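> example.struct
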């Protein structure tokens, strides 16, 4: 059976809350979580969140939403909080208004964190500098492969996995 046929069959039987993401040769299942589940996970470890609009509507760019966040992304935030011991405030989630693409905020792979000295020092002293992103943002890569981009006033973090959870 061809790979594409297998993927099509898999997509038809995937459980609710799971999306199949990837190319024909690199497909994998991603568990999506609700805003309520994500906020409880963040509360459990002391991660805070804020939005300029004081809201959580995924379709409003001034809100900070976690609806349809990938489970490993939420776990990655927990891992970062536990590893650093720093105050960690999420300022961007899955809401509209971010750049598009497969590994995007909208698709549940990214979170934005407010910058503070503790988090910035941890990232720069622990992760490997891997050069500038296309838009000029300096990037650092964790041992697990997640990428932290310094966008000036916040960290834009791409979670491929939970970071060692």
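> example.seq
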């Amino acid at each position: 059976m061809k790979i594409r046929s297998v993927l099509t069959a898999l997509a038809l039987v995937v459980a609710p809350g799971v999306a199949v993401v990837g190319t024909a040769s690199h497909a994998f299942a991603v568990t999506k979580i609700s805003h309520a589940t994500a906020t409880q996970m963040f509360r459990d470890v002391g991660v805070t969140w804020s939005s300029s609009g004081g809201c959580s509507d995924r379709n409003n760019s001034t809100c900070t939403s976690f609806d349809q966040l990938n489970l490993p992304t939420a776990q990655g935030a927990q891992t970062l909080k536990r590893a650093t011991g720093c105050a960690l405030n999420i300022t961007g989630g899955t809401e509209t208004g971010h750049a598009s693409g497969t590994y995007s905020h909208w698709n549940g792979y990214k979170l934005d964190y407010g910058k503070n000295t503790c988090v910035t020092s941890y990232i720069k002293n622990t992760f490997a500098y891997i050069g500038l992103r296309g838009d000029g943002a300096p990037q650092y890569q964790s041992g697990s492969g997640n990428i932290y981009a310094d966008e000036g006033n916040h960290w834009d973090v791409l979670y491929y996995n939970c970071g060692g959870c």
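> remarks
The CA atoms of residues 20 and 32 lie 11 Å apart.
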